[in-house]
Design a protein that fits this description.
227 residues; mainly alpha
């Protein structure tokens, strides 16, 4: 009878914890080789609307700040408006120069559109910390702001600026023009970077107390929580 010791058991791989902000995207195919060159013009009406929506979002965020400070709750109508503005911004970025992942024109709505290839949602928090609201949007988020400054070049609400995301999106456009295909690895990376941006945006806008992970979750699907 062998007395050779058994090798130590290898622990099962653990999935990263799920984040309350969920960004998903499906790469459309085929994509036009040349439409991306004029999407800045086609998306211009959205940029105009988003400008006013973001002005309103800043105002509602100030109201929400005092509501959280006094009650520990984010007023649900203001929460739905804020998540809608972020959702709309993501759809426009996905169509235009935040990803170039679809040629389907973004809808003019704050609500989720089930058949559109880009989605973003955030679970409503029943309670929020009254203390964190004083520091999370400026002090605690500083490390992420430094990263976003690199990813976006300079932070703008529609994510159509320069920086790493803009450079990678330009590479995707060149690949489309040359081959008619969006490189899958490049798509997964660009979507992962946008996911990081949206998580930080939700935290900085006081919509959640869950600190954004310093983790690049690539691909069109969200990582699921470990069982």
């Amino acid at each position: 009878m062998s007395t050779k010791p058994l090798p130590p058991a290898v622990p099962p791989a653990m999935s990263p914890p799920a984040h309350p902000a969920r960004l998903t995207a499906v790469l459309d195919a085929p994509l036009s080789r040349w439409l991306w060159l004029v999407k800045w013009l086609l998306a211009f009406p959205h940029y105009v609307v988003l400008f006013f929506l973001w002005v309103a979002f800043v105002g509602t965020s100030v109201v929400a700040f005092f509501a959280i400070l006094l009650t520990g709750r984010y007023p649900r109508p203001l929460f739905d408006f804020g998540t809608g503005v972020l959702r709309w911004s993501w759809r426009v970025g996905y169509y235009a120069y935040g990803t170039l992942g679809t040629d389907r024109y973004p809808p003019f709505t704050l609500a989720d559109v089930p058949d559109y290839p880009a989605h973003w949602d955030l679970a409503y928090p029943e309670r929020l910390s009254r203390g964190l609201v004083l520091v999370k949007w400026w002090l605690l988020a500083i490390p992420h702001y430094l990263i976003l400054g690199f990813l976006l070049g300079d932070v703008q609400v529609t994510w159509v600026t320069g920086g790493l995301i803009g450079l990678l999106t330009l590479c995707a456009g060149v690949a489309l023009a040359a081959t008619g295909h969006y490189p899958r690895g490049l798509f997964d990376l660009v979507v992962g970077l946008n996911r990081w941006v949206l998580r930080v945006a939700a935290y900085a806008a006081l919509l959640t107390d869950v600190y954004p992970p310093f983790r690049l979750d690539q691909g069109g699907g969200e990582p699921e929580a470990a069982p």
